[in-house]
Amino acid sequence: MEFVKMDNSLLPIFPGNPNFIDDTALQEKLRPVRLFEKYEIFFGARLYTSYFIERGEFPIVIMDPRGNPTSLKEITVRSPRQYFEIAKQACADALSYFDIQKST
Predict the structure, then answer these.
(1) 103: pLDDT confidence band, cut at 50, 70 and 90?
(2) How does pLDDT run across 17-53, given as a tens digit for each residue?
(3) Where are the domains of the chain?
(4) What letter does residue 13 receive in the DSSP assignment?
(5) CA-CA distance, 80 to 21, in Å (whole number)?
(6) Within 13 Å and on the Cβ side, how many CA atoms surround 24?
(7) End-to-end CA distance of the chain
(8) Residue 40 contacts residue 47 (beta carbons within 8 Å)
(9) Count of H helices and E strands in the chain?
């Protein structure tokens, strides 16, 4: 359930979101970001469903979604708990950087 909340709160930065077209400030912030790589745990190949629903195995290597959105660095995640904590921090970082109000 928490992963769904995190996903939903990050929908404004997803290019398929209808509000994205009208938000030129957000588009400008996203221009240098490789969205589907940086946030692959929310939008890409390393989506949480692969590890919590389809029973993927740990450890895994993912792009670190935390911190600076333009920084791409791989990290090794050793457990589901660590994956969750990384996702939680990444969501908070992205909401802050892109100035998005957290949905409840």
Answers:
(1) low
(2) 887 888 899 999 999 999 999 999 988 777 777 777 6
(3) 2-97
(4) G
(5) 35
(6) 0
(7) 12
(8) yes
(9) 6, 2
